[in-house]
Design a protein that fits this description.
By secondary structure, the chain is α/β, with parallel strands linked by helices. Helix content is 31%, strand content 21%. The protein is built from 14 helices and 15 strands. A hairpin with a 4-residue loop joins β1 and β2. The termini are far apart. 36% of the residues are buried.
């Protein structure tokens, strides 16, 4: 028997057009059936053949057959162009045998989808490659939504069935050493490019698996780019950059999808390259722009319910790793106490994100999270810890038109009685809504000069005189 590069044996193939004759490199058995046409049948233009039930079913069956017949290890050693050529010939053979009504262009797309199934994440692959997509939301195997420019839209793409979607989910979570099933139906994971993935399967997902993928740009946005897209004004960006450079401890607050991680990545550019940073996250997604970064990630419990490593334990461990700053991807529990302790004991300039709607709400949430640590602390002592540790809060929001903006920059000035004192430095003032739904408004200085300006001056950082004049346009 003659051996191909991918398969252990050669199987006679059905009659093909000369340009589709299979090569010895990659061969498989073709479905039996009546005589085949010379070329694929062309579907009417108004139809969407690649989303038809017949084509979806054929794609899944072809994928399974390819997996059975092909030596994937050998295939991965070949150049991508050669792999595509070999797969194209097999798919063309299969399309003829199945009498699928697709034309030449659709055949190319079909080959791409098969390659995505074999080497990637199936229907998700083109969405992950699309730079205009920021979020991918899957509600069961028949419903896929994406967010583009802050607006959600449905897609015609879908999975063959629930098992097809579960196979893609397992491929994602297994790549980072995690698992998801009925006994552990919730899972946080990440893709190789750093995109964050959250999965909920049955019985938590009542109508089928729920998947949320938050994509991140391969080139992290800097503050200048955020100014260009009108997320903030140049004076605000300069103040934030100066504060980070001068080690002003900062909390970035906002709702889900408001751009907290993007802002944290952008601010990290102002940290000195001489500093050692330790990042702590549930799923590693930060893209800090320094050479000396140690990244740590939590770990869920194993099948016996043991081996869990929580953020609080990682924060404690980070203090033994000689960090200059600790970056907490998301502060949402008892680790808040250890984070504040770190900020109060020589790790000024550390940063964290928190889910809250206003700077004052962020302070209240920190109080609640410190209470979760179960320590015998009074409200006054908790607020004292916060007032001593946190110096600046940057509030972000995603507007109803999908645009993300810095809606407030506030300074924590201290404790008066048992109330944490704050003063707003910059704010976004909404003035109305345009006929097309665009939010109208402007950024404005409040007239308050931050108290940490003296600290900036001692660091050799000076800001312009009109920065904080409310009559001076930003």
């Amino acid at each position: 028997m003659q051996q191909g590069r991918f398969t252990a044996h050669r199987i006679p193939s059905p009659r093909l057009a000369p340009s589709m004759e299979p090569t010895p490199a990659l061969e498989m058995a073709a479905p039996s059936g009546p005589a085949l046409p010379a070329e694929p049948v062309v579907a009417p233009v108004h139809e969407n053949p690649l989303h038809s039930e017949k084509v979806l079913d054929a794609k899944v069956r072809l994928h399974r057959k390819l997996i059975e017949e092909i030596n994937l290890g050998a295939m991965e050693k070949l150049p991508p162009d050669e792999v595509r050529k070999e797969i194209y010939q097999l798919v063309a053979q299969y399309v003829l045998a199945e009498r699928l009504a697709i034309n030449g262009r659709e055949l190319e797309e079909f080959v791409s989808e098969i390659l995505d199934e074999m080497l990637g994440l199936g229907p998700l692959e083109p969405l992950l490659q699309d730079p205009t997509v920021s979020d991918i939301l899957i509600n069961g195997h028949e419903s896929i939504y994406v967010e583009r420019r802050g607006v959600l839209e449905p897609l015609p793409a879908r999975f063959k069935d629930e098992q097809h979607l579960l196979r893609i989910i397992n491929k994602i979570v297994a790549a980072v050493g995690r698992r998801v099933d009925e006994s552990h139906p919730l899972c946080d994971a990440r893709l190789l490019d750093g995109s964050r993935v959250n999965v909920a399967v049955r019985p938590i997902g009542v109508d089928g698996p729920l998947v949320s993928i938050r994509k991140f740009s391969k080139k992290p946005l800097n503050l200048n780019k955020l100014v260009e897209v009108d997320a903030l004004r140049p004076q605000m960006a300069e103040l934030l950059g100066a504060a980070v450079k001068a080690r002003i401890t900062t909390i970035i607050s906002g709702r889900t999808g408001s751009g907290k991680t993007t802002m944290l990545n952008a601010l990290s550019a102002f940290i000195s390259e001489k500093e050692r940073l330790i990042t702590i996250e549930d799923a590693a997604e930060l893209q800090l722009q320094q050479p000396h970064v140690g990244r740590m990630e939590t770990r869920p419990p194993n099948i016996e319910g043991k081996g869990e490593i929580r953020q609080r334990e990682l924060v404690k461990n980070a203090l033994r790793m000689r960090p200059d700053r600790i970056i907490l991807g998301e502060c949402r529990g008892e680790e808040a106490f250890d984070m504040l302790q770190a900020m109060n004991t020589g790790h000024e300039g550390s940063m964290a994100t928190i889910h809250a709607n206003t700077p004052r709400d962020a302070i209240s949430r920190l109080e609640q999270m410190i209470g979760m640590a179960g320590l015998p602390m009074t409200v006054a002592s908790i607020r004292g810890q916060i007032a001593n540790a946190i110096q600046m809060i940057v509030q972000l929001a995603r507007q109803s038109d999908g645009k993300r903006k810095v809606t407030s920059i506030a300074e924590v000035t201290g404790l008066e009685g048992d109330i944490i004192q704050m003063q707003e430095i910059f704010k976004f003032v909404r003035t109305g809504t345009a006929p097309d739904g665009t939010i109208e408004g402007h950024f404005q200085a409040t007239g308050v000069r931050p108290r940490f300006l003296n600290h900036l001056a001692n660091q050799g950082i000076k800001l312009g005189g009109n920065f904080f004049d409310p009559t001076h346009p930003l």
